[in-house]
Design goal:
mainly alpha, two-stranded parallel sheet
Length: about 200
């Protein structure tokens, strides 16, 4: 757990898409109650955008990792998209970590105005006669940005909390912890848990 109360990855790992949305919500609230019982105040949450987590805690500032958002865009558009619309959207996503919310939203609106017709093109299936969006991957990438916008700049709105805009620091701590655990492969489960608790206690002291 980071300085500002980020949820542990073990709690986030349940949101891997295999469970139902209701099940994910229950797991999240079970985890938050466990943290509350330990008298730990969750000041903010930073996550990689797992389903259900972003809107699960309306009273807690939640920041979606901007690097994970960029990865989502690249996954849908590839590193070398062919259409000018996809090229422009990928380039825009790469400015996430540098832009303010106002600047990024303004640029995204300009992108939509320029490429709306292309984005909304439809094709007809000759066999069924049904129409579908022609550029599905581009639409998915754009909709991902639109859907996640409320959480991509939380750090900017709550500057007094010192929320990071990526999970890099948290990922680094977990990587370090895992490396240390690999040096003690013979530890029993209870000793591993004790080791993890001691590790985070040192990091937050």
């Amino acid at each position: 757990m980071g300085r500002h109360g980020s949820l542990r990855r073990s709690q986030q790992a349940r949101l891997d898409g295999r469970g139902s949305r209701a099940g994910n919500q229950r797991a999240l609230h079970t985890g938050s109650r466990c943290v509350a019982r330990k008298k730990v105040l969750i000041q903010s949450i930073i996550c990689d955008g797992k389903s259900g987590l972003l809107g699960a805690f309306p009273d807690i500032p939640v920041q979606m990792c901007q690097f994970h958002q960029i990865k989502i865009i690249v996954r849908h558009l590839t590193r070398k998209p062919k259409s000018p619309a996809a090229q422009a959207l990928r380039a825009l996503s790469l400015t996430l970590t540098e832009d303010t919310q106002a600047a990024f939203e303004s640029a995204l609106k300009r992108w939509y105005v320029q490429y709306a017709a292309f984005l909304n093109e439809r094709s007809v299936n000759e066999k069924t006669g049904r129409s579908h969006y022609t550029h599905k991957r581009l639409r998915t990438a754009y909709n991902s940005l639109k859907r996640h916008l409320p959480w991509l700049f939380t750090y900017e709105r709550f500057s007094d909390l010192g929320i990071p805009n990526t999970t890099n620091l948290l990922e680094g701590k977990f990587s370090e912890m895992k490396q240390l655990l690999r040096c003690h492969r013979g530890l029993k489960k209870e000793n591993k848990l004790r080791f993890i608790k001691h590790y985070f206690a040192k990091k937050t002291s």
